[in-house]
Amino acid sequence: MKSYKGMLFILITMCGSGLLWYFATPIETIHVLNKLSHIVGGLAITGFFLVFLLATRVKILEKWFHGLDYVYMYHKYLAILSLGLVILHSQLQDLVPHGDLAIETPLSEFAKELGELAQNGFIGLIVIALFAKFLKYEHWRYIHRLLLIPYALGLYHAYFSSRYDLFQPTPLGIFTAITAIVGTMSALYMLTMYQDMRFKHTGKVSGIRKLGDSAVELELTLDRKLSYQNGQYIFLKIFQTGLEKAPHPFSISGGDGQKIYVTIKALGDFTKKVNALIQLDSKVAVEGPYGHLDFDKGYQQQIWIAGGVGITPFLSYLQSNPTDRDIELFYTYRGHNDAIHKDLLQKYAENNKHFKVNFIDTTTMDRLTFDDVSVPAHTSIFMCGPEKMVKRFTKQFKQSSANDIDINFEAFKFK
C-alpha cells in the first residue's frame, strides 16, 4: 500500500521547520550549541504538532497515507521521534556555555521549569502509550489525551525561553504560530468535538446472529444511508448499559448502506462483552467508512488472505458481486469456532469457477506460509488480519515474488 503523499507531507513539514530555525535570526548572537538546541527543540514541537494532527482521522490525511493503519504507524513513530528530540534538546541546553544563556528573569525561569515539566510529562505518557496492550482501551484513550498538557507547557516554554522572538511575524514566527494553533486545535477537537461531529450516522441493532461460541454478526439499521465500498470498515459506538461507549473499528461484512452488517469476534474486553451482552434495539452511532481494500482496482489475478475475523471485508465483496476475477482465498483460523461463514465460502466456491478457497485450521494443520511461493507478475494480493500475520506475509511476498505484484492490506492494530 502506497503512502508516499503522507510521507512527503511529514518530510516537507519537518525539513521546513528545521530550515526555518536554521536560517532564523536570534535576538542576539548565540553559541552554535545553543543554536543547535533551538533547532532540535523546534523540530520536537513540530513533531508533536504532526502527532496531534494525524490523530484527527481527517479523510484527506487518510487518503494521503492510504489507510488509517499507516496514519497511526506514523503517529506512533513521530511521537517517539519527538520525545527523543525533546530529551536531546534538554541535553544540548546543559552543554551550552553559561555565559551564552539568556539572563534569567522570573518569566524565563518559569518557562524553563515548565519545559522540564513538559519533558517529564511527554516521557511518562508516551511510555504508557507504548504499553497500550496491557491497558483497557478506554483507559488508554483517556491517558493518551493527556498529551495535550505537556504539549501546551512545551509551547509556553518555546515562546518565553527562546533566544528567538517567536512573537514577530517572521517566517519562523508565522510557521510556529500556525503549527501551534493547528496542533492545539487538533487535540481539543479530539477531546471535545470529534464524538459529536463525526458520528453522523445513528441507528439501532436490528438483528443479532450468533456465529459459533465466540463471534456474532450484528445487523445495524441506520437513520440514513451510509455510502461505502466493499472492503471498508467503520468506527462503531454502542449505547448499551454494560458496554463502553468508546468507538471501535469493525469491517463491514455486507448490507445496502441503510442496513449494514458487522461481524464481531470475542478478542478483547469490549468484543467479549458485546458477544455476551448485546441486545436488540440498542442505539448505535457510526463514523466512516475508512479503508482502501478496493478489489475492483486490482489485477485480474488476485490472492486473498484472511486471518480469523479478517474474512469480513472479503465477505462484503463476495455477497454483493458475482466476481469474474480469478481469486484464490487462503483463510487461516484457529479452531472450528474461529472460522466465520465457512459454509458461505464453500458454497460460493462451488458456484463460481473463478473463485477458489483454501481453509487452514492452525490447530490441526501447519501454519500458512508463502516462503517458497513465487507469485506471478500482474497479481494483486489483498490481506486482512492480525498485524503480525500481515507483516510476515508482506515480507515473504516481497522476497520471493515478482516486482510488479500489488500488495494491499488492513491490519488489526489501532492503539
Automatic annotation (TrEMBL):
UniProtKB keywords: 2Fe-2S, FAD, Flavoprotein, Iron, Iron-sulfur, Membrane, Metal-binding, Oxidoreductase, Transmembrane, Transmembrane helix
GO cellular component: membrane
Cofactor(s) listed: FAD
Positions of the FAD-binding FR-type domain: 198-296
Topology term for the membrane: Multi-pass membrane protein
Xref: InterPro entries: FAD-bd_8, FAD-bd_FR_type, Fe3_Rdtase_TM_dom, FNR_nucleotide-bd, MRET, OxRdtase_FAD/NAD-bd, Riboflavin_synthase-like_b-brl
Stated name of the protein: FAD-binding FR-type domain-containing protein
Phylogenetic classification of the source organism: Bacteria, Bacillati, Bacillota, Bacilli, Bacillales
